[in-house]
Structure formats: C-alpha cells, structure tokens
Here is the input.
Amino acid sequence: MYDAIVIGARCAGASTAMLLGRLGHKVLLVDKTAVGTDIPHGHFIHRQGPQRLAKWGVLDDVVATGCPLVTDITMSLGGVPLYGKNLRVDGIPFGIAPRRSALDKVLVDHAVAAGVELHDQFLVEDFLRDGDRITGIRGRDLVSGERVERLAQIVIGADGRNSRLAQAVNAPTYEAVPSVSCYYFSYWSGVPMEELQLHVGADFVIFAFPTNDNLLALFVAWPIERFAEVRRDIETAFMSAIDRVPTLAEQVRAGERVEKFYGTADLPNFFRKPYGPGWVLVGDAGHHKDPFMALGIADALRDAELVAQAVHEGLVGKRPFAEALAEFEQKRNETSLPLYQENLARATFTPPPPEQRQIRQALVDNGNQADTNAFYKAILGLAPPETFFNPENIGRIMQQVAQQPAAVPL
Ligand SMILES: Cc1cc2nc3c(=O)[nH]c(=O)nc-3n(C[C@H](O)[C@H](O)[C@H](O)COP(=O)(O)OP(=O)(O)OC[C@H]3O[C@@H](n4cnc5c(N)ncnc54)[C@H](O)[C@@H]3O)c2cc1C
Here is the structure.
C-alpha cells in the first residue's frame, strides 16, 4: 500500500512525487513512456518557473543538461520590436527552455533521490475502486507485459490533458473553450540566439528561443481555422510565416533544420474539478490552455507544490483531504483564471486594447530601458502589475514621449 501513486512522470507528476517523497511519504511514480524521452510539447519556462526550480534545488541540474538561461526578450507586434534586457528576479534569469527529455529526467532523478519508487514504461489501464472512491491502479508493464495492481491512499493524475483518471472519475470541466489555434515547431542548428523572440502578426505568431544542444526552437501558431491548409504543406506554411520577419528569416535560412516538424491542433482550454474521493489531478490533467503565453509548465510546477502540500496534510491527518484539496482548487483558480482569459484573448489574435498599444508605443519611442524592463516584469508576472501600471508611472512615460522633439523625416 502506497501513500500516493502518481500517474505521469513529467513536469507536474515528477515534481509532485519529488515533493511528497521529500515530505517522507511512500510514493509510486509511473509513466507509460521511458524516462529521458521527449514529448512533443513546447518548453519555454518563465513566470516563477525558474525561481521554483531554483528553490527546489533543481535548476542547476537543468542548466547542467546544456540548456542556457534566458535574460532577454524581443516582443514584436505588427513588426515593431520592444527589447527587454537582463530580466532577472533575485538574480535568477526570467526564462529557460530545456527539452522535455532533459527537464523531466532531472525532476524524476530528484524524485527517486527523495525515495520515490519509479516504474516507467508502465501503462495505467484502469482504476481500483471501493464504491465511488479510487483506491489504486491496474496496469501493464510495457516491456514484460506483466499485469499489476497497486493500492494507495490517494491516486494523483498528472497524466496530461487527455487524462485517463479525469475520464474515469468524470471530472467536471468548467470555463471550457475548444481549441482556438494550431501549432507546428521544430529545431535548427547554426542559428545563434540567446533571447526569447516573439513576433505577433495579425494571423500568426512565432516563438524562437535557445534550447539544449545549441539548438534554436522555432514555434509557429495560426488560428485553428487555418489548420487544414497549414497541415497540407507544413514546411511552406511554416517558412512563409518566418519570412514575414526578414531579420529572423535571414538567420534561420542560414541554419539547418535538424528534426521533423511536430504539430497539434488538440489544444482545448478548460479547468477540471481537480479532486474527489481518493483522487487528485495536477498539471494539464486539471487545467489546460492554449500555449500562447507559455503558462503550462510554470503552472504545473506551482500546482505540484500546492497539491503536494494538500495531499501531505491529508495523509498526516492534519485535515480532511477534501478540505485541503478544495483550498488547492481555489488557489489554482484564483491565480490562473485572469491569465487564462488573457491567454485566450491573445490566442484568438484579439488586438490589445488601444491604451495598451499606446503605452507600448510610448516605450518604443522613449527608448528608456529601465521603463521597458519594468513593463516586461509587470506583464511577465515577475513583479506586481501595479508597479508599472499605475496612473503616475503611465502619466510620466506618456509625458516624456509628448515632450520629445518630433522625428525629422530623412
Ligand atoms: C505545442 C505546444 C507548445 C507548448 N509550449 C509551451 C511552452 O513554451 N511553455 C510552457 O510552459 N508550456 C507549453 N506547453 C504546455 C506544456 O507542454 C504542458 O502544460 C505540460 O507538458 C504539462 O505537463 P504535465 O506534466 O501536466 O503533462 P504532460 O507533459 O502531458 O505529461 C503527462 C505524462 O503522463 C503520461 N501518461 C498519460 N497517460 C498515461 C497512462 N494511462 N499511464 C501511464 N502514463 C500516462 C504520459 O506518457 C506523459 O509522460 C505547450 C504545449 C504544446 C502542446
């Protein structure tokens, strides 16, 4: 009998297992894939993600896989770039984009070091029940074929957006919106880039960032309505988006694509009720959203911490599971809901409100790096929004721009 069984050994599941292991619990961590393999998902981590990895003592090992930390950002709207430089919180760079084979393995290694029992290449096929309570898992070792049943006080589904556990317990969804965009991505060698670049057009967005093995990751998203057309000739659609940004296109075309294109249009947006008798959902299993704002991994790490604490309190009898897990759901939603709505607006290519565009233009025009960095820190969740978006600060920036001499046409 385990205290907890965690299904899914990636950013949500491996972190939850690691934290529960560190709290002294007997944990089984399973995944149908082999540890150290990739998963075709994006992987730019920001918004407290790097800080959380550092707090857990994991960030140095992620960097040691050969993944550079990122301090700079260029976000270009309609062809007008705005540069954020040297963005750090408590000395920790604002972003890092490890391949999932690297990140997830580091987390699993730390879970195992914390005493967690690992069974990878193990497919969970069904659940053991006592009435409406989930009491364990039934599954199959994909190498030996052996069928196995395991019992636990609580089963944690970190098994991704199509979670089998969520389906088995009929976890209700709310705030659900079907996929609004589609993505393709791949990796290039010979394209040196140290920053995160975002190029937002009227009906496409490009994300470019450095990752392991000196590779550049390039992602392009389009509105979901264009999926059939893009899929018909991925390379042409992909490169014609890149060509819309000539400076980037020049760099990319000088390099070489070293992997196939990966893609998906299965990007539903939802919250699920994340707990019930004997079960909990964490990461994408409980809350999924379009990748536009790259929220998934940082959210998964945050929720791993909340779930591990709640499950710990239930296991040691500090308070009933239901009470501790209700608090997890409330905290998750409180933090995620405003960003979820903003993310949906951006993923549907809704132009930002005029006042936001004005402020952005003012920052471009006044060229003050400290102001631009403060803007980025506020919109990337690295500082409270009101540190930048307060009437006094906005008034000052707008006034500075108004006082600048008009540019003399050449
Ligand atoms: C195209 C794309 C781009 C993205 N870009 C970004 C980005 O730049 N930044 C960001 O933060 N997020 C991004 N995301 C989102 C991010 O990838 C997810 O939020 C993150 O992977 C969630 O992690 P997870 O651990 O919850 O689930 P997953 O990473 O999906 O892992 C689930 C695990 O569960 C295992 N599993 C499932 N079912 C079973 C079973 N029955 N038995 C055993 N094992 C099982 C799977 O094998 C898998 O390993 C992107 C996603 C996509 C699709």
User: Anything to note?
Assistant: The chain has three domains: 2-43+99-174+269-344, 68-98+181-266, 354-403. The first strand starts at residue 2 and ends at 7. The chain has a mean pLDDT of 95.
